[in-house]
Amino acid sequence: MTMQPWFTDAKLGIFIHWGIYAVDGVQESWSFYDDIVPYDQYMSQFDRFTASRYDPRDWAKLFARAGARYAVLTSRHHDGVALWDTAHGDLNVGRDLIAGYADALREQGLKVGLYYSHSDWSHPDYASTRKPGRPPDLEDNRYSEVAAEDEDLDAWERFLAYRDGQIRELTQRYEPDLMWFDGEWDRSEEQWRIHDLAAMIRSEVPDVVFNARMLSEGDYATPEQGAPVVPPEGPWELCLTINDSWGHQHHDHNHKSVDQLIRYFTETIGGGATCSSASARGRTARSRPNRRSAWKGSATGSPGTRKRCTALCGDSRRGTTTARAPSRRTAAPSTSCSSTPHAPRSTSAACSAGSAGSRSWAAAPNWPTASPVASTRRRASCGSSRPRPRTSIRTPRCWPSNWNGNWSCTAEPAGSDESLRKR
Q1: What phi and psi, each to the nearest 5 degrees, are found at residue 286?
Q2: How far apart are CA 212 and CA 302, in angstroms?
Q3: What pLDDT does residue 212 have?
Q4: 14 Cβ contact list (under 8 Å, min separation 6)
Q5: Is 131 helix (H, G, I), strand (E, B) or coil?
Q6: How far apart are CA 349 and CA 240, in angstroms?
Q7: Strand arrangement, sheet containing 407-413
Q8: Rounded CA gap, 156 and 348, in Å?
Q9: Strands 178-182, 209-210: parallel, antiparallel or unpaired by DSSP?
Q10: What pLDDT sits at residue 1?
Q11: Are 83 and 42 in contact (CB under 8 A)?
């Protein structure tokens, strides 16, 4: 499928990582999967998840002011709890928290994205098979797989019918512009029946965009938590949290500095990407986006073009022209940017620019100039094209393990390119 132009032009999107896990501030889904929190204790958040201050119109207005062009909401994470009143399965919040979100985005002219996990670690028929080639002596997790001799393929068929029913509801009710899948590692492409799933979705929404976790049907790659040393081929997205957590965790105050976020943005843009942002509400998950939550970045490349850095400099649609002129540019034509005081801290952010074969430059008023990226990366700076001395900002570097957007990362001092190592 041809990539939709709106996505490669998006620059900034918002990713809202929200679910019952925000009530106690525990890690989303993985906390019970890894036996950090007992399953019953994790699910006790269910009855305390009220969404009493759910205000998607306020969210959408904030996103539009930030210059975002789309947003993504976690409709169902690996824990199996749906944020809409689905007729399939027993776990949902008892009301529709997606319709208001989708309507509010479209009122602001934003594209609608929905996250959905292939995996459901709560469904009784999910842990009924295992991924082919998985070593028989490797310990099985009771939430996701069974030993080969205990496989129940009839149960797996029931699970796929459940999944297809939920996906059909999402596409028919909300007609999402983007489907952001996750959890694909648990099974093979054939077990997921990815081609059939993609065909079903496109029969309802022909121009839908898929991330790479739709495997061979994916439209763009999705590295997380660090700018890749070598940008992926084609469109891609950087997923980056503002602190150390995807969902809201009450104790996590380790927020990245503005300098670090600007560097991430410029490196993403220089590598040919778009930015998107995400947040979850804290305390009782009552739902106004938490302004000190998580940023998640998505980056999309657009071959042979130079993009405007709205993620850094504001909303180009509003026509503001207050950005100061870049100083002494010696390479690459300049781009005009509008300005905002800062990107919204309530969400996770993503930057978009040209492909790896083009450079993008931007000037952001009153913001520090980012130090240049590693010599193996395309260069981009906010404010000046001149190289600046290396700083001590610790920037994770990542390496692709495959096209699906799975990356291994390690944080190293920005000036220590020789110390980069693959994990």
Answers
A1: -85, -10
A2: 16
A3: 94
A4: 59, 63, 66, 68, 70, 71, 72, 276, 277, 278, 279, 344, 347, 348, 349
A5: coil
A6: 7
A7: 227-228, 394-400, 407-413
A8: 34
A9: parallel
A10: 63
A11: no
Mean pLDDT in consecutive groups of 10 residues from the start of the chain, 423 residues: 84 89 95 96 96 95 91 97 97 97 98 98 97 84 93 98 98 98 96 98 97 95 80 83 88 90 76 57 39 38 28 31 32 30 33 29 29 31 34 39 39 35 32
Q: What are phi and psi of 410, to 5 degrees?
A: -150, 145
Per-residue DSSP letter, 220: B
C-alpha triplet 350, 355, 360: angle, nearest 5°: 70
Q: How far is CA 275 from the centre of its chain?
A: 9
| CATH code linked to domain 1-423 | 3.20.20.80
Q: Encode burial over 394-405: b for 16+ CB neighbours within 10 A, e otherwise.
A: ebbbbbbeeebb
pTM of the complete model: 0.70
What pLDDT is attached to residue 120? Answer: 98
Residue 243: what pLDDT? 87
Q: Quote the pLDDT of residue 223.
A: 82
End-to-end CA distance of the chain: 33
pLDDT of residue 81: 98
Residue type, 181: F
Burial level of 307, CB count in 10 A (0-12/13-18/19+)?
Answer: buried
Rounded Cα distance, 129 and 148, in Å: 7
Residue pair 62/105 in contact (Cβ under 8 Å)? The answer is no
Helix axes 153-174, 99-107, angle to 10 degrees: 40
| Residue whose pair of structure tokens reads 């000046």 in the numeric block | 384
